[in-house]
Amino acid sequence: MAAFAALIAAQPAAAQNRPTDQDPLSLEEVLEEQLSAPYYGQTSDGFGRAQRPIVDRIPRKGLRGAGYWRTNVKYFKGVGNILTDLQDMTLYATSQDRDYQVSSVTGEALDKWRPLTVPETTETTGLWGKAWNDDMKAWVLTFADKPLYRFAGDDEPGDVRGKGGDWYVMEVIG
Prior knowledge:
One of its GO terms (biological process) is alkane catabolic process. There is one protein chain. Strand 9 and strand 10 form a beta hairpin. The chain has helices at residues 2-10, 13-16, 27-36, 109-112, and strands spanning 40-43, 46-49, 57-59, 71-76, 80-85, 92-94, 113-115, 117-118, 128-133, 138-143, 146-147, 149-151, 167-169, 171-173. By secondary structure, it is α+β, with helices and mostly antiparallel strands. The chain has one domain (27-173).
């Protein structure tokens, strides 16, 4: 019985309530549901509401809503469908961002990693949100709680020179 309970708990809620005569959930639907749920983990203040360590695959459906007007999805050979800014420059996220609604890039790193800033009054919905960058005294657009950044070393659309280490791009699924 315990194994059955563990199996049910591991399935997304939508799958648990879905009639058995319907098609199984798609990867995109599973991702959207997982990313919509609050995440709790280790933060700078201990355990609490936090950012997921890595969100490198995102559902296309999840891009709808307020916030999408600042971004685009672009296909690049060798990279795939990724989240970009409106000039089709690659957007990155970092596993260093851990605290909920906080952009942790500070000091000289801001010369290299440029946050996608938004006005304080920006309304966001769905998986879109904002994080505060204290060094810049500015709000940064987030997707699935992850602040979005541009890399200064990318010269043209499709460049992913910032990818590696703690930095990654968000592949769009669906």
